[in-house]
Amino acid sequence: MKILIPIIFFIFCLLFSSSSSSQTSMFEFCVANYTAPYSPEGYSCKSPEKVTIDDFVFSGLNLPSNTNNLAKTGFRTVFVSDLAGLNGQGLSLARVDYKAGGVVPIHTHAGASETLLVLEGNLTVGFISSDNTVFLKTLNPGDGIVFPQGLLHFHVNQGNASAVAIVNYNSPNPTFQYVALSLFSSDLASRLVTAITFINPSEVRRLKALLGGSG
Amino acid sequence: MKILIPIIFFIFCLLFSSSSSSQTSMFEFCVANYTAPYSPEGYSCKSPEKVTIDDFVFSGLNLPSNTNNLAKTGFRTVFVSDLAGLNGQGLSLARVDYKAGGVVPIHTHAGASETLLVLEGNLTVGFISSDNTVFLKTLNPGDGIVFPQGLLHFHVNQGNASAVAIVNYNSPNPTFQYVALSLFSSDLASRLVTAITFINPSEVRRLKALLGGSG
Amino acid sequence: MKILIPIIFFIFCLLFSSSSSSQTSMFEFCVANYTAPYSPEGYSCKSPEKVTIDDFVFSGLNLPSNTNNLAKTGFRTVFVSDLAGLNGQGLSLARVDYKAGGVVPIHTHAGASETLLVLEGNLTVGFISSDNTVFLKTLNPGDGIVFPQGLLHFHVNQGNASAVAIVNYNSPNPTFQYVALSLFSSDLASRLVTAITFINPSEVRRLKALLGGSG
Amino acid sequence: MKILIPIIFFIFCLLFSSSSSSQTSMFEFCVANYTAPYSPEGYSCKSPEKVTIDDFVFSGLNLPSNTNNLAKTGFRTVFVSDLAGLNGQGLSLARVDYKAGGVVPIHTHAGASETLLVLEGNLTVGFISSDNTVFLKTLNPGDGIVFPQGLLHFHVNQGNASAVAIVNYNSPNPTFQYVALSLFSSDLASRLVTAITFINPSEVRRLKALLGGSG
Amino acid sequence: MKILIPIIFFIFCLLFSSSSSSQTSMFEFCVANYTAPYSPEGYSCKSPEKVTIDDFVFSGLNLPSNTNNLAKTGFRTVFVSDLAGLNGQGLSLARVDYKAGGVVPIHTHAGASETLLVLEGNLTVGFISSDNTVFLKTLNPGDGIVFPQGLLHFHVNQGNASAVAIVNYNSPNPTFQYVALSLFSSDLASRLVTAITFINPSEVRRLKALLGGSG
Amino acid sequence: MKILIPIIFFIFCLLFSSSSSSQTSMFEFCVANYTAPYSPEGYSCKSPEKVTIDDFVFSGLNLPSNTNNLAKTGFRTVFVSDLAGLNGQGLSLARVDYKAGGVVPIHTHAGASETLLVLEGNLTVGFISSDNTVFLKTLNPGDGIVFPQGLLHFHVNQGNASAVAIVNYNSPNPTFQYVALSLFSSDLASRLVTAITFINPSEVRRLKALLGGSG
């Protein structure tokens, strides 16, 4: 039998060889090549022979993130810019840490739905629909929520203890657009901010000063 | 020859008859049946034999819309809820009228890009990217802009005359989420509004009173 | 308070900084880089720091287009090849001018639905479904129609005055395939044209001569 | 050991039972329920417990189709209207028979690409791009072509023998729009046909008579 | 001023009222109506006025799942069949518990990518590409992996302690197809199993007995 | 009249010229440029002026493929790696030959549905759903089946004669993942194979030796 095995093996190698060229597995996954052109659909693909397990593995989400900031929250993200193997796979995640009083201010993700799962502490989370209905809930560990795609939403730690959550997106690159930063950290002229939000000019100026905006 | 034509015609009728059932053209278009179940992708389809040209035709976009309101703007929409033939076709449009000082406050469309074309007057339009860069331009008749999908944007008529624009969306049902209405026309508790926007409580209360919110 | 502001600002800058690299906003929009490779989904993206408002703004749609041609119609297009910011945004538009008797001959767009809005004059527009039903309407200013994706359609100015329309597509690059040009401006052999259309050979030759075809 | 097996089996049954309800496999496939509402994406799904292998199996493509018609061609289709299991699967196929001189006249499929494989005889096939370039080839048995989505194309059997081909689509419901039938089997007014195609009125009338159109 | 507020409010209510009907927000989210027809794209939508926050909130992922089974693993799923608000949102999640020696046998998800994040213990995880390359890693708390869409993958707890992971999918309904159950819990005839896997008939019979299959 | 034709023709050339640049037809099809970057959506596009009919035409599917191997089957594929014109078109095909006793072992295609049409001989084909139901049928010439996307399936020639089938996919690049090769031709450690499949270690070693695996 021993003598036959190499022959069988040789024959077997022909089993799935076909008239096709050898490129057929190239789109099975598309690990990001950060230095090549990218398109609306994502990065160009790294050459398959350079792909390793490390392109798919991340670490560090057991560690708290830095919450020493105004919002008292911090993120550890695993987005396609952090992990090349997410390219073209349509999902990503992050760990969020909240000190007591920490907040993720109201924001949207242009092209992604989100789930949030509370690991520690409790969080008041909410989203608002386009008819201005508020969907609000305080979540405890093991609780979670789905934020529908594109709607304004927020997280607030109203408790006295810190909190931790895992958030997931159905996009490898969920962009965050924070309302407060868009309006008050930017150089959008204060009179325009008032016109498009109805907020008093003096309050706009105060917030621009607070959040580093100009104009 | 005349005698042959009916025969040829009869034969021709068999040309494209096949072994298929007669249902093959059903998905060519899917005019909305507003009374049947609907799914994330749109309404169920009206039975093809009930479809007429009127399911595809709209009118009235030559007429100004009502601008007697706080924002001094008005819309005439042609969305899938207005025109059944838009169902499944992936686009829609509207006419917008602006009095002098009229504004379309800052808002997003969850799943749609937009183009705006100025027909009369001039409009200052802008959008903000997620790194808080402002893209701003004053447009004259014949000018226009594309608003990238999901980003906060606004229109302001800073001129002394009224203005008219045509807006188009790559969705038959572009939802509008206005930041000011989400925050100040809703029943979201004022202290939460402050927490997630950094706006002073007194200003939040003023805006809630102005815009009809509670909480 | 004044002395605190820079500190607060410094702290705030950390608010939304995360463990992510700085590439997360790259796919928020994808302005076309016309000189890089392009894929079925569109052009490669211009480097974000080179993007300006001018990549998103177009002009000139207030001006009539040239209608001194056989069809007595003219187009001013705002497609992705004209406006880089349309890349990946899924929509585009054009202005169409029609002299009295002007026509946009029967054609299809391979992957796009279309809306047409009449601004001036009146237009007879129609499309044909695959069971050879004709959907036909004469439109006046402010009227419009949706042409379902992929179906043959046409516009005819049967009035005595010129007409103007705005057309919109749910693709940044709607290709136009005109039946008459495909058959009679090409080099498709006349006998093949007859075989696949049933049009008399002499008429095929006349149309090839008229429209510049050969074969 | 024998006595242990039922116990192990009982335990194993719990292996993949979870806290989820029992509905999780419902979208694995969606066999068409022809009597329920349908949407732009396809038919509603038949209840899973009523699905059998016969929903996925077709037959008869070894048999010639009827070619006794003006075009001398015939189809046996396996579209979603013929085979419920194709619903939501994104593909379909057909067998085409051509007598000597048989033709599949110039046509488009609104939302589908196509491959054609010649089994018997030879076929001249072609498509035309939107810049009026003709892509033409005569195919022998074992040869084939891909017709890009949405473009006008045709098949002609110029040989003296009959031919057979298998065509495949990346849609479960490829609609066929034949140019000649749209123009000449419909009730589109002859003067409009002339306006939008440049074909002489007398030829339009001849073709309307031949192909059963009116107007 | 006080007397004016109701008037302003009344006027403001007209701000965003348009000529559109009131149905425009219907597709903003599509909470599953489990009793209505469903399509390849998901369930029909519950009527918006019946939607509450509870359609979007889940709980219990802090609790271990039952691991008293052959595989020594258990799942708590939050799929669309568990949480109606996930319908149409394109994502879902689950908690997985593993006793020492626990395993999630090799399996695929037909239409979903997956991320796995280890919360407790350590897990050896792997996937195999179509050229039979194994991508393997042992993960500790805070580590994770992305499993590319459609590829065979598995989790094994090779440690001496129990482990916990959170898994996320970019589908609201990720179906699980376990190789061992497909082959050995089904009624696929043993000789066919041998033919399509090369596994010895006696081993096939042993596994069928172990896993409850027949044939 | 003759003297007018050149003038009319000249004028006509302006008919469809517009204010657009000349790039508008670039995405009509996207023939693969194998040497440029590729993305999750496919290859970059070859420059249109280099595209010829030969980019769309394939041949040789009338010829049997090599079945001198362990599985007694052979493939002739027409995938995007074989035919550049399939890029972005969403479909592909292959011819399969089976000697008596030939088998296409159980496998999945990560992102593609499949149809199989028997041309010669008979084939027993089957797929298994995620609740371990087997859908099985023996097909004769002219019969066929649709394999739902992502599910495990197989073909076996149980007859005494050779068989031939045509298979089609709704992807230009259907990857094949064979269960037996993933487990036994790879270097996945035998004890892990046993853990994730329940197959006896001795049988795993036998299969690794047979199929060329290690570990």
UniProtKB/TrEMBL annotation, chains A, B, C, D, E, F:
An annotated GO cellular component: apoplast
Keyword terms, alphabetized: Apoplast, Disulfide bond, Glycoprotein, Manganese, Metal-binding, Receptor, Secreted, Signal
Gene3D superfamilies assigned to the protein according to its UniProt record, in alphabetical order: Jelly Rolls
SMART domains, alphabetized: Cupin_1
UniProt-annotated location(s): Secreted, Extracellular space, Apoplast
Main location as per UniProt: secreted
Keyword field contains DNA damage: no
Positions of disulphide bridges: 30-45
Binding residues annotated for oxalate, in chain numbering: 109, 114
Short name of any one Pfam family annotated for the protein: Cupin_1
Residues annotated as signal peptide: 1-21
Domain of life: Eukaryota
Presence of keyword Glycoprotein: yes
Positions with a binding annotation for Mn(2+): 107, 109, 114, 153
Family designation: Belongs to the germin family.
Full protein name: Germin-like protein
Organism name: Acacia crassicarpa
